[in-house]
């Protein structure tokens, strides 16, 4: 009898093609739609629309579709941490937490309760076997590679996981979806995370975090105005700084170049490449290793999804934390985001950025 695989069907084209490919390969395929955020009245969360799309795909493929609500787990394990880090002045990445806390733990456990031997998702990543366990690899399509978002998942949870899209490019996936006659083959890719959707980010945060105002200062120390809270800003941000035209100043846009947490001051400049935005070193919290470091191979780091890999080296480790130095200074090294490390195609793991070195 063919092996039973449960595919996380999100309603998007990537998971739909994953299910189609696995069925073509002879697996017994089922789908599982995960609702991770409770619907609200704003209309920004598209869970109902996503479910209808997933159901249409399941009907076209002739596979059963199960539905499960993980919104309570999401609020407790992901959203609460997201808000806490914002209050601390950080810029968290909930997608890394969602994969670690939801998509590769409750999802896998629920799939097994439904009788599945394997699970699969539409992530652009790959896996390889090794004597120590699965290795997480970068996808063939560098522009879509999502290994960065998966780098925090415990290694053991990649056992019996399939990533059917690891060797494909996005145009190839779109072409396969059209050839297979999948009903969502023209559906546009989702952007952002469900609980934010396309809504204004600052307006959404204001519903959950109280204002905590402080001064907006130029890089020369001039007070330019007042902000409503450092949690609404991230390093390198250009839009929404809230500074109008000023007498004697150019009309160039203002960029967030630093945050002074002690004084609640937002530091801005009209230099897009301001020196305070660039750092060569950073410190992580406890690093989550997926594979051992090889001293003979060059090491590369990635600070955000789709950022080009940057050559770096470990200069210090203590209590599981890392101090990393880059060959070239990196723009907007942001506490709360994650540093993922790579050697070749292998993702070694990730650690939350705790602090950046001197500018």
Automatic annotation (TrEMBL):
Enzyme Commission number? 2.8.1.13
Q: What InterPro entries does the record tag this protein with?
A: MnmA-like (IPR004506), MnmA-like_C (IPR046885), MnmA-like_central (IPR046884), MnmA-like_central_sf (IPR023382), Rhodanese-like_dom (IPR001763), Rossmann-like_a/b/a_fold (IPR014729)
- What are the record keywords, sorted? ATP-binding, Cytoplasm, Disulfide bond, Nucleotide-binding, RNA-binding, Transferase, tRNA processing, tRNA-binding
Site (Interaction with tRNA) location in chain: 123, 337
Q: Where is this region: Interaction with target base in tRNA?
A: 93-95
Principal location: cytoplasm
According to the record, the residues making up region (Interaction with tRNA) are 144-146
Residues annotated as domain Rhodanese: 5-46
Q: Which reaction does it catalyse?
A: S-sulfanyl-L-cysteinyl-[protein] + uridine(34) in tRNA + AH2 + ATP = 2-thiouridine(34) in tRNA + L-cysteinyl-[protein] + A + AMP + diphosphate + H(+)
For this protein, the record's SUPFAM superfamilies field holds: Adenine nucleotide alpha hydrolases-like
Can you supply one Gene Ontology CC term for this chain's record?
cytoplasm
GO molecular function terms listed in the Swiss-Prot or TrEMBL record: ATP binding; tRNA binding; tRNA-uridine 2-sulfurtransferase activity
- What does the UniProt entry say about where the protein is found? Cytoplasm
Please verify whether the record's keywords include Cell cycle.
Answer: no
Per its UniProt record, what PROSITE patterns does this chain match? RHODANESE_3
Q: Where is the active site?
A: 98, 194
Q: Where does ATP bind?
A: 8-15, 34, 122
Please give the biological process terms from Gene Ontology that the record holds. Answer: tRNA wobble position uridine thiolation
Concerning its family, UniProt says: Belongs to the MnmA/TRMU family.
Q: What is the protein's known function?
A: Catalyzes the 2-thiolation of uridine at the wobble position (U34) of tRNA, leading to the formation of s(2)U34.
This chain's protein is named tRNA-specific 2-thiouridylase MnmA
Tell me what organism the protein belongs to: Stagnimonas aquatica
């Amino acid at each position: 009898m063919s092996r039973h695989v449960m595919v996380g069907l999100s309603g998007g084209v990537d998971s739909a093609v994953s299910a189609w490919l696995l069925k073509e390969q002879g697996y017994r395929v089922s789908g599982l739609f995960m609702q991770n955020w409770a619907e609200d009245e704003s209309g920004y969360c598209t869970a109902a629309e996503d479910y209808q799309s997933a159901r249409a795909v399941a009907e076209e493929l002739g596979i059963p579709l199960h539905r499960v609500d993980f919104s309570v787990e999401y609020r407790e394990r992901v959203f609460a941490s997201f808000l806490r880090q914002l209050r601390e002045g950080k810029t968290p990445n909930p997608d890394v937490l969602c994969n670690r806390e939801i998509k590769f733990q409750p999802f896998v456990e629920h799939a097994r309760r439904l009788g599945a031997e394997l699970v699969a998702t539409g992530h652009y990543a790959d896996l390889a076997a090794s004597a120590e366990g699965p290795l997480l690899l970068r996808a063939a399509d560098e522009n879509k590679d999502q290994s960065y978002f998966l780098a925090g998942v415990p290694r053991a949870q990649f056992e019996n996981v399939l990533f059917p899209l690891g060797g494909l490019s996005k145009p190839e996936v779109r072409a396969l979806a059209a050839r297979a006659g999948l009903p969502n083959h023209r559906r546009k890719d989702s952007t952002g995370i469900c609980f934010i959707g396309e809504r204004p980010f600052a307006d959404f945060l204001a519903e959950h975090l109280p204002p905590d105002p402080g001064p907006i200062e130029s890089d020369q120390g001039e007070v330019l105005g007042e902000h409503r809270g450092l949690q609404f800003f991230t390093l390198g941000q250009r839009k929404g700084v809230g500074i109008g035209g000023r007498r004697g100043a150019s009309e160039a846009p203002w960029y967030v170049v630093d945050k002074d947490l002690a004084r609640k001051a937002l530091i801005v400049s009209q230099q897009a490449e301001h020196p305070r935005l660039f750092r060569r070193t950073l410190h992580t919290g406890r690093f989550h290793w997926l594979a051992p470091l090889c001293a003979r191979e060059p090491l590369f780091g990635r600070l955000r999804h789709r950022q080009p890999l940057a050559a770096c080296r470990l200069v210090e480790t203590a209590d599981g934390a890392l101090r990393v130095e880059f060959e070239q200074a990196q723009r907007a090294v942001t506490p709360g985001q994650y540093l993922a490390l790579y050697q070749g195609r292998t993702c070694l793991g990730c650690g939350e950025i705790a602090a950046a070195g001197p500018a």
